[in-house]
Amino acid sequence: xxxxxxxxxxxxxxxxxxxxxxxxxxxxxxxxxxxxxxxxxxxxxxxxxxxxxxxxxxxxxxxxxxxxxxxxxxxxxxxxxxxxxxxxxxxxxxxxxxxxxxxxxxxxxxxxxxxxxxxxxxxxxxxxxxxxxxxxxxxxxxxxxxxxxxxxxxxxxxxxxxxxxxxxxxxxxxxxxxxxxxxxxxxxxxxxxxxxxxxxxxxxxxxxxxxxxxxxxxxxxxxxxxxxxxxxxxxxxxxxxxxxxxxxxxxxxxxxxxxxxxxxxxxxxxxxxxxxxxxxxxxxxxxxxxxxxxxxxxxxxxxxxxxxxxxxxxxxxxxxxxxxxxxxxxxxxxxxxxxxxxxxxxxxxxxxxxxxxxxxxxxxxxxxxxxxxxxxxxxxxxxxxxxxxxxxxxxxxxxxxxxxxxxxxxxxxxxxxxxxxxxxxxxxxxxxxxxxxxxxxxxxxxxxxxxxxxxxxxxxxxxxxxxxxxxxxxxxxxxxxxxxxxxxxxxxxxxxxxxxxxxxxxxxxxxxxxxxxxxxxxxxxxxxxxxxxxx
Length: 535
Ligand SMILES: [Zn+2]
What we know:
- There is one protein chain.
- The chain has helices spanning 24-37, 51-60, 87-94, 108-115, 119-135, 147-153, 155-168, 184-197, 213-222, 244-254, 262-265, 268-278, 300-308, 335-344, 353-368, 377-386, 443-458, 507-534; strands at 5-8, 41-45, 69-75, 99-105, 139-145, 172-177, 201-206, 227-230, 296-297, 326-327, 396-408, 417-429, 432-440, 466-474, 485-492, 497-504.
- It is built from 18 helices and 16 strands.
- By secondary structure, it is of the alpha/beta class.
- Helix 5 runs parallel beside helix 7.
- The site of zinc ion has 4 residues, from loops.
């Protein structure tokens, strides 16, 4: 099949998701990342509707993009007005980008009920706007809003809007399932009807309200569409837009449709995680292809199958999308999981049955004390390392003390009470003992600060490690304030995320264990990464 153009609208439609707000700097960084991935078109925003997007397009002129073309988005001219003086169209031209996407109505009911103008005037608005932009020498894509709903209610009028857009010179007609309620069969039928009408390049823009956005996009491609619009991680208003992180590998690996090179495809997981960081959202572990659980195996039977034949329980090789297989370790799992995981992290001596049995018993013992390694693979890795007789930890805890104090502020600072936490940490690095004190807004924060204060003197690059998630669970088996608590910490260095666990009847100790594991794990990995270059 013919190649497919990838059109990303994370910066415009994706930013419509509840809780997402990108700054101009974020948007520039994301655009750069999408270019690295090899996305063909990046929709940067709506300059006619907000000053932030005007600033984005101004600053984007200094970006060096090697694969992507920036696109500015706006609507057709206002009813009963002239295209030449329409503020929104002028703002689009002012961005200086070469590709413009114009959204116009394709549904009769939307024209009469929402736009409140005549069907003829809507057609003129489409024609005038496209002609105006084409006369400026620009490439113009037409987003046919509510196309599929419009086609269902009045196919003649919906097709008419596309016919006038074609006559006016549109370079692509993107059919939109704006309300996201269409099913794949309906998409196929409508796209085929359009294909008979025009030879212009067709695009598809779907929303996920019926959880069909990806399926609908693929159905449209099979029916003759060659531009797909979507967002990274499926971000978007309501239930989101079509998820490019699923569409891209489906096109390339399942449908053999060219859209990215193999090397670019292998960046997909990294790009997905990078953009969720930018959106200040925890990467969704359960996303197909790019989620950290997408290739996770827990059941002992599956793992013993995987050892014999890697593809026995996975639909693709995770490396193709830059992801990796993860074998989860838990008390439910068998010896096979332990052997597999230990091997994966390069445990020097191949674990023989007996040694694996010993490690499995230790895991089970710790799990009975509240530790859980399913989602704390970094802590598990440390467990394996610590089992080695020659293991040298990058630091060791000697002792710590945390003071929590409730203080009354001086009257000048209003009569407010404040909580103050202070931690004193003593650690041993090699033969050296380091002693640090730090304050924090809570006891865990104070401990974190004090520990970092000590370690940063020796390992300055540790500054890039951030705690991205902190969860406390009270374990159901125990009662009241005597409860065993489990702390799960997720950390990131901006490139990779890892998870650690701590458990204790004391929440501070549980937090400390997870925190110390997180930093120890990162330092260990840095050491391992550096090894080949120092020889
Ligand atoms: Zn949309």
